[in-house]
Amino acid sequence: MPKIPTAEPLKFCSLYWNEQRTQHELRWKDDTGKRKTLKVPNNQDAEAFAFANDELIGAGFVNVSKKTQLLFKDFLPSYYAWLDRQVHNYQTGNKYGDKIKPARRKCVRSYIQNHILPELGEVPINQVSVGRVKRLQRELSQKMLPQTVNSVIGTLNQIMTMAIEEEVIEVNPVPSIKRLQAAPPEPRYTPVKEEVELILDHCEGWHKTLIMLAAGTGMRISEILALEWSCLRGNVISVKASAVKGYVGACKTADSVRRLQIDSRLKARLAELKLQSTGEFIFSTKDNKVLDGIDMLRQVLYPAIKRAGVPKFGFHGLRRFYCNELERQGVPKDFIQTKMGHAIGSATTGKHYRALRDEDHLKDDWIIEVGREAPRLLR
C-alpha cells in the first residue's frame, strides 16, 4: 500500500462495502464534523483509489482501514467531540441540542480512561462482544458499588450506540447485559423546623440569607448560586438557570424554570445584601465569580450544622424540609410539584396546566417562613 508523507497527524477514513450498491465507499468526517461519503469506482482498487484521491490527501485522511480493523480506542475521538458539543449546548443555553454539564463530561471521561480503555482499548470495536462486556462488568463489581458499575457500562453502551449511528458497527452487545441490582440507598436525614431555626441561630450575614433562601423556597443549591439580581422582582424570584462547579447553564429540567414567592424577612435580608453587592449574582465571590456548591456545603452549611449540634445533612435536606412543610400543611400535590420544579402529569397537559397555575400561585401563594420564629405556612 503506498504511503503518503505528511507532517500532520493522520486522520481516520473508513472503507466500507455497500452491499446495496455492490461497491466500496469511503466515509469520514471533515473538520466541521460533517459526514462525507465518496464512492469508489467499480473498476478501481478501493484502497489505491483512496490514497490517490486529492480531497483525502489534502485533508490528511491517509490511514484507510477496513471497518473490522478499527480499534475501540480509535473511535473515541468522535465520542469525545460529541460530549464537547453537548457541554457547549449546556453552557450556551441551547434549547434545541442535547446537553450535559461539564462535571458529567469529566466523570464520563474518567470512566473511559480508568475502566473501559484498559479492557477494550486495543480490541477492534466490532469485536466488543457480550462476553467481553460481562467480564468487564464482573471485574468492576469487585472493586466498586453496583450503581457505579452500571454507570460505567452505561457509558460503554452510549459509545457503542453512537458507533452504530456512525455505521461503524452493526450490533451493540451492551443492552443484552443485565444491570447489577443496586442496594437500596439509606434514608437521608431531613431536618425538622426546630432544627432549621437552630441552625439559622448559629450563622449570620449572607450565610444566613443563603440558608434561609434554601429552606424557605426549596430551591436547589445550584439554582440559588445561579440567581442574578435581575431574577428578583419585589417578593418574587424567577428561577432561570443552574450553576455547577462554576459554570452557569440551563436548569436541570424544563419544569425547573419557575417563579417563587419569598416572605418579608427574606426580602429585607436580600435588599440589605444588594447594598453590599457589586456584581450581577446575588451570591458570588469577592471578584464577582460564581460560587461552588461543594464549597458552600463545606464552608457554610456544615459549620452551621456543627455549631447547632444537629444531625448532618446537605442542602438537599433543606429542600426536603421545604417539601415536608408543605405536605404537613395539606398543600395540594400539584402545587408542591410546581414549586419544587417537578413535572405535573403528562408532558403536554402539565405544561398548559402549570402555565395557568403559575399566575394563580403568585396571587395567592403559600410561603414557608424561616428565621427566629418556627417556620409556618402563610396564605
Provide key terms for this protein:
379 residues; alpha+beta; OB fold (Dihydrolipoamide Acetyltransferase, E2P); DNA polymerase, domain 1; hpI Integrase, Chain A; 3 domains; 4-stranded mixed β-sheet; 3-stranded antiparallel β-sheet; 14 helices; elongated; disordered N terminus; disordered C terminus
Can you characterise this structure?
This protein is α+β, with helices and mostly antiparallel strands and 379 residues long. It has 3 domains: 12-69, OB fold (Dihydrolipoamide Acetyltransferase, E2P); 72-176, Tyrosine recombinase, N-terminal domain (DNA polymerase, domain 1, Orthogonal Bundle); 193-378, hpI Integrase, Chain A. Helices cover 47% and strands 11% of the residues. The chain has 14 helices and 11 strands. A 4-stranded mixed sheet has the order 3-2-1-4. Strands 5-6-9 form a 3-stranded antiparallel sheet, with no helix packed on it. Strands 7-8 form a two-stranded antiparallel ribbon. α3 packs antiparallel against α4, α5 (130-141) runs antiparallel to α6 and α8 (205-217) runs antiparallel to α10. It starts with 11 loop residues before the first strand and ends with a strand.
Indicate the low-confidence ranges by residue numbers. Answer: 1-9, 346-364, 373-379
Strand content: 5-15%
From N to C, what is the helix and strand string? EEEHHEHHHHHHHEEEEEHHHHHEE
Q: Report the top-level CATH class of the largest domain.
A: Mainly Alpha
- Regarding quaternary structure, what we see is single chain
Radius of gyration: 27 Å
Percentage of residues assigned to helices: 40-55%
As for the number of domains, it is 3
Mean pLDDT, all residues: 81
Q: Determine the number of helices (DSSP H or I, runs of at least 4 residues).
A: 14
Give the CA-CA distance, first to last residue.
80 Å
- Tally of strands: 11
Largest sheet: 4 strands, mixed
**How does the helix and strand content classify structurally?**
alpha+beta
Q: What overall geometry do the principal axes of the alpha carbons give?
A: elongated
